[in-house]
Design goal:
mainly beta; 9 strands; 8% helix; 46% strand
Length: 108
C-alpha cells in the first residue's frame, strides 16, 4: 500500500488499493473501524459525516471536501484530531479541528 499525506494535513490516504480499516486518533483514544461496515459519507469543506454500521463519525475543520473522494473509495487510512494548541494556531488550508465519534447502540 502506498500512502500519501499532504504535509501537515492530519489524514493519511492510500494511493494504492483501498484500505481495510480506518484508524481514528482522538485526544483520549484510538478507534479502528472496518471499511466493510461503511454506510455513507456526506459533507462539505467544514464538516463531514461518515456513517458506519457501528459508529457515526463527524469531522470538523477546513478543506475537508478534499477527503470525500478518498472516503468514497475507502482509501483513507487514518484521521487525527488536532491537539488543542493546534486548533487555535490560526492554521489555514486543510485541517481537522475536531472529530466526534458516537457508538450506535443496537436495540435488541
Amino acid at each position: 500500500m502506498n500512502v500519501v499525506s499532504g504535509g501537515n494535513v492530519p489524514w493519511v490516504v492510500s494511493s494504492g488499493d483501498p484500505a481495510a480499516t480506518l484508524e481514528i486518533v482522538l485526544q483520549t483514544q484510538t478507534l479502528i473501524l472496518s471499511w466493510h461496515q461503511f454506510v455513507c459519507g456526506e459533507g462539505n469543506s467544514e464538516e463531514l459525516r461518515i456513517a458506519f454500521a457501528s459508529h457515526d463519525v463527524v469531522i470538523r475543520g477546513a478543506g475537508l471536501d478534499a477527503l470525500l473522494p478518498a472516503i468514497a473509495s475507502h482509501r483513507v487510512v487514518s484521521l487525527r484530531e488536532s491537539l488543542r494548541s493546534e486548533r487555535f494556531s490560526g492554521q489555514a488550508g486543510r485541517c481537522i479541528h475536531e472529530i466526534v465519534v458516537r457508538r450506535i447502540e443496537s436495540e435488541l
